[in-house]
Predict the structure of Phosphoenolpyruvate carboxylase kinase 1.
Amino acid sequence: MTLKRIRHLGPIPSSGYSVVSHAELPSTNNAPPTQVVIKTYMRSDIVRHNLESCIHAERAALVLLSNDNTGKVPRLLNAQATPTSLSLVMTLAPGVPASALPRPLPLNRTSRIARNLLSSLRVIHTAGVVHADVALRNVIVDCDNDDSVCVVDFGSCFVTGAQARDPSQTTTASVTAPEMLEATVPDPTADIWALGVFAWACMFGGPGPFRAETSAKVLELVENYATGRFEIIDAFRDACRTAGVSYDDDWVHAGDFVSVCLSRLPASRFAKPNSDSKHKDWRYAVDYERILSHPFLKL
């Protein structure tokens, strides 16, 4: 496969230092063309913004996930380097970014999407990858397939055993877990923190509980919470009052789910001590049986 044979269909909005486009591969054996995403980094930007370790981790993660055929993550089809750029060709996930959904969403639909997102995260974590940027724009929801979820854009990810780096450099501010503010390499509980932010954003609209005019101010709010200056459950109840929702049992379950996901300490986020020697960099793993049994995810 060469990029010259690919038909470019148009740009895809993205953040960061890459250019993302929608394209299709030529059909073979009378099959329809394959819809793909091409993510291109210019080598000048790679050097200028010190992106080598990020891109190495992104490619390594996609290789680790390449055997998954569930549609919960994109599959890497090809990677091509030229003297001026590096391009990754991946399968296109059907659906729309969660940021484009008409939020706030009904509570039962938020529960369904959160459950599907958790299923995608389980695939990612099982492969030894922490996504580390589960922002609304990186969660593709297929509204025509029971709100199935594909998590995309691994440009901020961490692969177990790979080179360490400061996670606060690349992760979206609104989903940055407190421990990442201290340049701590995250374990999967950082993605559970982002799941809590995601659920809040679906319930109430906006980017989640930590909203401010600039990324720096958002991170300041995260730090204020981490140091005990306010409680998430109090903020959740305030959000319910502002939204005019009745704080019934379903909303109580929703508040508890968000509060556990957004626990200050990673050990309290539906976590268990990591016992997998393949992922020895991780202090904690996610207790999927526990989180999937939460009443909110059964609405």
Remarks:
- The domain at 96-298 is CATH 1.10.510.10 (Transferase(Phosphotransferase); domain 1).
